[in-house]
Specification:
Number of strands: 12
Strand content: 15-25%
Number of domains: 2
Helix content: 25-40%
CATH topology of the largest domain: Rossmann fold
Strand order of the largest sheet: 2-1-3-4-5
CATH superfamily of the largest domain: Response regulator
Radius of gyration: 18 Å
Number of helices: 8
CATH architecture of the largest domain: 3-Layer(aba) Sandwich
Largest sheet: 5 strands, parallel
Shape: elongated
Length: 232
């Protein structure tokens, strides 16, 4: 079955070129030039991936990404004419799965798309699992804590998924980095520790008295909660 890609970019010429090029790789591609059209199209098209430009009319791509993440777990690859590290950090922190600066090689875009789809397409056999007061839906990529939604960035969710799927086993910083390698982590200094700190904060987890994630000094982190028997 063909994977469907939605492009939200006001460059009509680029949209046509990408539609033809990605079509040669077996993708079904649709494009829109305005963010409002894009938000409507996501609901009707239900694409497997969204290519989102930062510079858009009426609303920039960062704000569009925020809106997408409020109701959709669809992977997002952001494009921009500006390749500054700060822009990449903003996009990734808002929930984008990857970031590519214009101009780019079409072959690199295809490689990034394929990498994202591999990372996000392998859901566990049990899509929703409960760990005490924490519920992780791996298929929808959502998290509930005490029945309240927790908004995580793509990076934070990937890190939590790795730890939860290996509960009780110590995950080294290198292992966590490898799991997140496709998310442009070279943009960050001490990236793993920064993400873990933000993740803990959102889970209301005190590092000194952890409920979910324990630091193993000099090694990495371990998820210390066993899966509840009533997990789905």
């Amino acid at each position: 079955m063909k994977k469907t890609i939605l492009i939200i970019d006001d460059d009509e010429k680029l949209n046509r070129l990408l539609k033809d090029y990605l079509g040669n790789y077996g993708f079904s591609v649709e494009s829109v030039t305005h963010p409002d059209e894009g938000m409507k199209k996501i609901k009707t098209l239900q694409p497997q991936l969204i290519i989102l430009d930062v510079m858009l009319p009426g609303m920039n791509g960062f704000e569009v990404c925020k809106q997408i993440r409020r109701s959709h777990a669809t992977p997002v690859l952001m494009l921009t004419a500006r390749g500054e590290v700060a822009d990449r950090i903003v996009g990734l922190e808002l929930g984008a799965d990857d970031y590519l600066a214009k101009p780019f090689e079409p072959r690199e875009l295809v490689a990034r798309i394929q990498s994202i789809l591999r990372r996000t397409g392998n859901s566990p056999v049990t899509p929703k699992r409960r760990f005490g007061s924490l519920v992780i839906d791996f298929q929808k990529r959502t998290v509930l804590l005490n029945n309240e939604p927790v908004e995580l960035t793509t990076m934070e969710f990937q890190a939590l998924s790795l730890l939860a799927n290996n509960a009780g086993a110590v995950m080294s910083r290198d292992q966590i980095m490898d799991a997140l390698r496709g998310i442009e982590y070279e943009a960050f200094d001490r990236s793993v520790d920064i993400v873990m700190s933000r993740l803990r904060s959102k889970l209301l987890d005190d590092p000194k008295f952890p409920s979910f994630i324990k630091t193993v000094w000099g090694t990495g982190y371990v998820f210390i909660v066993e899966e509840s028997e009533d997990g789905e």
